[in-house]
Amino acid sequence: MISQIKTKVREDRRLSGEEALLLYREADLNLLGQLADEIRQRLHPEPIVTYVIDRNINYTNICISGCKFCAFYRAPGDSSGYVLSREDLAKKIEETQALGGTQILLQGGLHPDLPLSFYEEMLSFIKDNFGIHCHAFSPPEIVHIAHISGLSVKGVLERLIKAGLDSIPGGGAEILVDRVRRQISPRKASTDEWLDVMETAHGLGLKTTATMMFGHIERLDERIEHLLRLRDLQDRTGGFTAFIAWPFQPQNTALKVRPSTGHDYLRLLAISRIVLDNFPNIQASWVTQGPKVAQIALFFGANDFGSLMIEENVVAATGVSHRLSEKEMRRIINEAGFKPHQRLMDYTLVNNSKTG
Question: Environment class of residue 44 by beta-carbon count within 10 Å: exposed (0-12), middle (13-18) or buried (19+)?
Answer without folding.
Answer: middle
